Amino acid sequence: MLIEGYDGGPLVAGEPLVARPGFWSNHLLGSCCRDVGAEPEWFGDDGADVDAMSEVLMDPERWPVFRVPLEGGYGVVVVYRNLVGDYGVDYLLTHPSRSSAHRIASWEGDLEGDTLRWRELIRIADSPSSVAEGIEDPAARLLLLLPLLNDHALPDEAVETFSAALVAVGAPQDTAPNTAEHLLDHSAGGVWHDPTWTSPLSGSSGSPGSTGSGVLARLGIT
């Protein structure tokens, strides 16, 4: 697999992994609820599932790529950057009109870069492309990009929305609302925006946090 403009390693399609046991524990425990004593059981997994999936996701010989295409040609791509000594998760923005992908954020224990507002995250989750390859399931799209959520005024339905998404991917129904609450707590925990980031499409600069907008708004994607 090749992502134009991304100097990565041996990229491979990772989309089938989202349906395997242990994936969501690996993807969300560290980035969204590491400080609340979260357990794999919150996602319907067990320790063996998580360990086995961790070996797959962090294999330096195979870097899983998860494509989240939108109508209109845009796409968000999540890459597990398994470079020895420089492990992380990169979030890229792509469009056919651009010669290269742009890294909008990276997670390396903390998220650095640009983020999404609630309405932007929901728009991405609910607007899969009808022609591009990638993840189409709204629940998986929502949860995959949850680490990018940064919104201090979440709507009342946020917990219900994420609870339903968790159940859809295999989390226990009786504990899903509580898990959703913990997952969403991170969105109000701090400002992750990078004030030096410049939009690759609009030419604008400055901190998106200063205007209260997320990456889609800054790019003029409505």
Derived from helix and strand composition plus strand pairing, the structural class reads alpha+beta
**Rg calculated over all Cα atoms:** 16 Å
Major sheet details = 6 strands, mixed
What low-confidence regions span 5 or more consecutive residues with pLDDT below 50?
190-211
Overall mean confidence score, pLDDT: 84
Q: What general form does the structure show? A: globular
Question: What is the CA–CA distance across the termini?
Answer: 29 Å
| Side-by-side strand order of the widest sheet | 1-2-3-4-5-6
What's the multimeric state?
single chain
Q: How many beta-strand segments?
A: 6
| Separate helix tally | 7
Order of helices and strands: EHHEEEEEHHHHH
Helix content: 25-40%
Strand content: 15-25%
Account of the 3D structure:
By secondary structure, the protein is an alpha+beta fold. It contains seven helices and six strands; from the N terminus they run βααβββββααααα. A six-stranded mixed beta sheet has the order 1-2-3-4-5-6, with no helix packed on it. A hairpin with a 2-residue loop joins strand 3 and strand 4. Helix 3 (about 120-125) runs antiparallel to helix 4, helix 4 (about 140-145) crosses helix 5 and helix 5 packs across helix 6. The longest helix has 11 residues, at about 45-55. The protein is globular. Mean pLDDT is about 85; it is low at about 190-210.
How would you summarize the topology of this molecule?
Elements lengths: L10 E3 L9 H10 L14 H11 L5 E7 L5 E9 L2 E9 L7 E6 L3 E3 L4 H8 L12 H7 L13 H11 L7 H10 L29 H4 L4
Parallel strand pairs: 1-2
Antiparallel strand pairs: 2-3, 3-4, 4-5, 5-6
Helix pairs in contact: 3-4, 4-5, 5-6
